[in-house]
Specification:
Layout lengths: L3 H9 L15 H18 L6 H8 L3 H8 L2 H16 L13 H16 L2 H11 L6 H10 L1 H17 L8 H21 L8 H19 L3
Length: 223
């Protein structure tokens, strides 16, 4: 049992200053600047064409700061991919509490995904990934888990919740998730990657998204 004297002594003790050192919170502004620089440089120059010195200079920080926040170049690449996906496809898009009907929510997700995969950064990154020997298999897996897999998993979880509510009839949500995003990418993504066409305008993109969502609902809508 603690005595009143010891309790009083504790109450009068001055508060200690916040601890500093390796465990202190990182500067969020610098982290954001590093991620922004990494997103642009990796997309423009490729993974092997970018050094940590370049990223530090672009972000306006020291190379030591870059390593302090992300550890190594592989981890920074994964963080840059994830940040781009979260920027274009925020987690809130997959929440069932959003206002509007199911069709509107699917269209919102489809529009955001189509904008992401047809962006200049995404097309450049895809081309970089396809060059044999450009990056190793481990980094390709890192890219997949940080970007596409995160999106597929979030959408599959949303579909499962909708199945449980009786709003969709899907026997395999993982397959349905893959089908949805493959349909959204469509032929245009492959043609853009090959340099055969430019990014679709807003009207064409909207028509493509609307037709794809309608097809998905015809396949998996509640009967």
């Amino acid at each position: 049992m603690v005595s009143p004297r010891s309790s009083a002594s504790r109450s009068k003790a001055p508060s200690k200053p916040a601890a500093s050192g390796p465990g202190r919170p990182k500067d969020l502004g610098k982290r954001a600047a590093i991620l922004d620089a990494a997103k642009h440089l990796f997309a423009r120059e490729g993974f092997n064409g970018v050094s940590m010195d370049q990223i530090a200079a672009e972000a306006g920080v020291s190379k030591l700061t870059v390593y302090s926040h992300f550890g190594d170049k592989d981890a920074l690449f994964a963080a840059a991919v994830q940040a781009k996906c979260e920027e274009m496809l925020p987690d809130t898009l997959f929440e069932l509490e959003l206002t509007g009907g199911l069709r509107d929510q699917l269209k919102a997700i489809a529009q955001a995904f189509f904008a992401l995969v047809t962006s200049e950064e995404a097309i450049s990154t895809h081309r970089m990934m396809m060059v044999p020997g450009n990056i190793d298999d481990k980094l390709k897996q890192t890219f997949w888990e940080a970007g596409p897999q995160r999106t597929h998993d979030a959408f599959a979880a949303m579909l499962q919740a909708l199945v449980s509510k009786g709003e969709l009839d899907i026997p395999d949500v993982a397959t349905a998730s893959a089908q949805f995003f493959t349909l959204i990418k469509g032929e245009v993504h492959a043609r853009m990657t090959c340099g055969l066409c430019s990014r679709p305008g807003p009207v064409d993109a909207r028509q493509h998204v609307d037709a794809t969502v309608d097809m998905f609902l015809r396949a998996y809508g509640r009967r």
